[in-house]
Amino acid sequence: MQPGELKKLVPIPEDRITVVCLHCNQPQEVGRRTLSLTCRHCRKPLRLEDLQFKDFQSRRVVETCGVVTIEKKANVSTDRIMCGGLIVRGKVKGHITSRGPVLVGPDAEIKGDVTAPTLAVGAGAVLDGQYAIGNLKKSEPNPAADPTSTQPAVTSPTSV
Ligand SMILES: [Zn+2]
What is the rounded distance in angstroms from the CA atom of residue 108 to the CA atom of residue 126? Predict the structure, then answer.
């Protein structure tokens, strides 16, 4: 314990939520208003806030335990999205792993593989990829099994 930290005591157990780490799948309790933390199991950084995209975005990764929303005019290009939930109204490209429901609007377009417990798709949405719905596998899908995939195998450490 660091005595130099803020000497705030918040002894309210109801003010805590359980977060499951995106990386090691270990649950841990955090304060309800926590926006980011370091996983106490695997030491990787975790964000808890909801993310909203409204325009063109190109990122290597999008990772949060919160809900990611891709708005109608958004066009998000990324290697992978790991999130607690996903709402797509615009365009998104990347591997998507969601711990919660994925909602896809009627004008949405997803290019990439999607892993999620549930999926709801509006009529007219464009889905281009492989879908694993209902079974959350711990092992990563092997991109080498797909000959049409020309993605480089980027395994650089996630330094934030
Ligand atoms: Zn972890």
Answer: 6
Whether the model pTM is above 0.85: no
Ligand 1 centroid – CA 160 distance (Å): 15
Q: Nearest to residue 13, comparing CAs of 32, 26, 28?
A: 32
CA distance 66 to 86: 9
Domain chopping of the chain, boundaries: 13-45, 49-133
Residue 80 has pLDDT above 90, yes or no: yes
- Give the three-class secondary structure for 143: helix
Cα–ligand 1 centroid distance for 20 (angstroms): 8
- Strands (DSSP E) found in 1-151: 16-20, 27-31, 36-38, 45-47, 51-53, 56-63, 67-70, 75-83, 85-88, 91-98, 102-104, 109-111, 114-116, 119-121, 126-128, 131-133
Distance in Å, CA 112 to ligand 1 centroid: 24
